[in-house]
């Protein structure tokens, strides 16, 4: 269980996060939604210890996050941020191998390679595994990075807009794979999503953020409501029930 | 995606593994060294070997330190056109030399204890680096760039300082200073060599222990941190290593910077791996090969009619043009 209590973050006079308290489930898929600038990425930066909160505390399985050794923490939670620019010529397989770094420390064992192959296979990248990253399309790169994070094999996985650059087919495939990972490997996966319909269809829980605060959190049925979403995004929209899913129409 | 799609292969020497490439390069280096030591011996063998090996060691040390420093700096900055020179190291070195000549005079400067001189230069460079790190590094990539920008400004400041000192010197002092500042690959002081081997050992151990972490640094700060790397500690370690290596090579032969860029780029192309355990030795050996063969050409084919640094710049320039043209076509 990851618990954030009263997290505040401010740069000078600008409050980025205000009193964010949240507990993330032990297993299942949680989506964080919200307009640009709501503080979603800052929250991930705090969980990655790239950013120290101005006040408040993060606890992982009961222990404060600061008390963890870096490497031990890297076996508990992994985070994939946006914009992963790499200059070096690294192949997909080698990139995924980096996901095992907290375990092998530079010397991958046969067991590590097995996990790496599995992660590559899981993301349908077996054909591309010897390609260099600069020979891949944006979507393929994105999948390679997700494979790396899966290879890290942590209980908690945070993905910042994993569907960026992906076409419909691969977006759906990724969300299905993340769901499967939640169920089969009993992981807790937290994704920051901009497409709220993906959030609605695949999440166990949706957390919405606005102006650095948690606006709502609950099941997709609870959060996918006209008034809640209109309030969140400040725009007209309507939520429709199609079969058993709630979908938001906001294109018009 | 059909089965028939062939996987693209690396452009050069497709069948050679990085290990073999390294071995091949090592053979070339050994060959170049043998050639350099034994070609056209006029005096007694023992004398020639003794005379030439002193210079050879300098070449090898500089080849190692400049290449490694440049490679580390590029890994740190995630930028393949930068060299440590951008942080104003060379300018600081020049400033230190000029102030020394000014305050100690010609005789004082030339009789300075080499241990003390090297120790002081290195200490100053490391101190400058630490101060920049403390004051400007905020634990993220942007501040790293900010720190480098500050380094450029400091470089200009140091150069202006040196220019001021130059004006205060008398002609003899100026001549001595000029001599100290030109990159000359002459035989060096044995004491400096001892220090160099110490530095070499320390660096080698540090690199051996951290090469895998250096690879992770290539992924950028976010991923590296998520993979359990202490990013700030790595930044500090790399900066310190770079400061030590640069001060070593400048103390040995004076400022050389273009050379590192050339060698490291060749290493990226030819080493066949992004991994530092191959890249570092490859770049180091390539640096040695370039210097030793350059010196060989200089001594035996041109009869000392030109400087080694000029040869390197010449071939380096040609190579760089070729690189750019090829990249433009691709």
UniProtKB/TrEMBL annotation, chain A:
InterPro entries: AAA+_ATPase, ABC_transporter-like_ATP-bd, ABC_transporter-like_CS, P-loop_NTPase, Siderophore_ABC-ATPase. One of its GO terms (cellular component) is plasma membrane. Keywords: ATP-binding, Cell membrane, Ion transport, Iron, Iron transport, Membrane, Nucleotide-binding, Transport. One of its GO terms (biological process) is iron ion transport. PROSITE patterns: ABC_TRANSPORTER_1, ABC_TRANSPORTER_2. It comes from the Bacteria. Its main location: membrane. This is ABC transporter domain-containing protein. It comes from Reinekea blandensis MED297. The lineage of its organism: Bacteria, Pseudomonadati, Pseudomonadota, Gammaproteobacteria, Oceanospirillales.
Automatic annotation (TrEMBL), chain B:
GO terms for cellular component: plasma membrane. InterPro entries: ABC_BtuC-like, ABC_transptr_permease_BtuC. It is found in: Cell membrane. Gene3D superfamilies: ABC transporter involved in vitamin B12 uptake, BtuC. GO terms for biological process: siderophore-iron import into cell. Pfam families: FecCD. The chain crosses the membrane at residues 20-37, 57-76, 88-109, 115-136, 148-169, 181-208, 229-246, 252-271, 278-298, 304-325. It comes from the Bacteria. One of its GO terms (molecular function) is transmembrane transporter activity. It is a multi-pass membrane protein. Keywords: Cell membrane, Membrane, Transmembrane, Transmembrane helix, Transport. Its main location: membrane. Belongs to the binding-protein-dependent transport system permease family. FecCD subfamily. This is Putative iron ABC transporter permease component.
């Amino acid at each position: 269980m990851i618990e954030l209590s009263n997290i505040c973050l401010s740069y000078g006079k600008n409050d980025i996060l205000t009193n964010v308290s949240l507990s993330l489930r032990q297993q299942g898929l949680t989506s964080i939604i919200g307009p640009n600038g709501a503080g979603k990425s800052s929250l991930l930066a705090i969980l990655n210890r790239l950013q120290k909160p101005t006040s408040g505390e993060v606890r992982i399985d009961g222990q404060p996050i600061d008390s963890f050794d870096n490497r031990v923490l890297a076996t508990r939670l992994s985070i994939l941020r946006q914009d992963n620019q790499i200059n070096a010529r690294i192949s997909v397989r080698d990139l995924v191998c980096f996901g095992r770094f907290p375990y092998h420390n530079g010397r991958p064992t046969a067991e590590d390679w097995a996990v790496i192959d599995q992660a590559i296979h899981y993301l349908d990248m077996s054909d591309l595994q010897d390609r260099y990253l600069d020979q891949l399309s944006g979507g393929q790169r994105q999948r390679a990075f997700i494979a790396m994070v899966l290879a890290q094999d942590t209980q908690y996985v945070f993905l910042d807009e994993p569907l960026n650059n992906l076409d419909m087919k691969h977006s759906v495939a990724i969300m299905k794979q993340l769901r499967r990972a939640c169920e089969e490997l009993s992981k807790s996966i937290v994704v920051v999503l901009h497409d709220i319909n993906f959030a609605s269809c695949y999440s166990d829980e949706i957390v919405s953020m606005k102006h650095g605060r948690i606006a709502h959190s609950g099941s997709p049925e609870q959060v996918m409501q006209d008034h809640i979403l209109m309030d969140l995004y400040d725009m007209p929209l309507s939520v429709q029930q199609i079969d058993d899913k709630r979908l938001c129409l906001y294109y018009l | 995606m059909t089965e028939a799609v062939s996987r693209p292969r690396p452009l050069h020497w497709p069948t050679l593994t990085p290990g073999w490439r390294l071995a091949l390069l090592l053979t070339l280096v050994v060959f170049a060294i043998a050639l350099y030591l034994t070609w056209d011996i006029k005096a007694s063998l023992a004398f020639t070997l003794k005379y030439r090996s002193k210079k050879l060691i300098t070449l090898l040390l500089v080849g190692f330190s400049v290449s490694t420093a440049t490679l580390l700096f590029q890994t740190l900055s995630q930028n393949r056109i930068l060299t440590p020179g951008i942080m104003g190291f060379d300018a600081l070195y020049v400033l230190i030399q000029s102030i020394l000549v000014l305050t100690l005079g010609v005789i004082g400067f030339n009789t300075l204890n080499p241990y003390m001189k090297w120790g002081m230069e290195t200490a100053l460079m490391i101190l400058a680096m630490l101060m920049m790190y403390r004051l400007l590094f905020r634990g993220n990539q942007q501040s790293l760039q900010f720190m480098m920008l500050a380094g450029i400004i400091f470089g200009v400041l140091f150069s202006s300082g040196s220019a001021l000192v130059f004006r205060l010197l008398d002609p003899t002092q100026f001549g001595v200073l000029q001599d100290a500042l030109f990159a000359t690959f002459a035989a060096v002081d044995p004491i400096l060599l001892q220090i160099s081997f110490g530095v070499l050992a320390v660096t080698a151990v540090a690199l051996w222990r951290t090469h895998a972490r250096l690879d992770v640094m290539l992924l950028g700060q976010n991923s590296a941190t998520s993979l359990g790397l202490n990013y700030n500690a790595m930044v500090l370690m790399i900066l310190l290593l770079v400061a030590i290596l640069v001060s070593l090579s400048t103390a040995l032969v004076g400022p050389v910077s273009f050379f590192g860029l050339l060698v490291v780029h060749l290493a990226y192309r030819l080493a066949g791996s992004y991994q530092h355990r191959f890249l570092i030795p490859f770049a180091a050996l390539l640096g040695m090969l370039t210097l030793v063969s350059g010196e060989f050409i200089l001594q035996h084919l041109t009869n000392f009619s030109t400087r080694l640094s000029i040869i390197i710049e010449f071939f380096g320039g040609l190579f760089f043009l070729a690189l750019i043209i090829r990249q433009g076509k691709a």
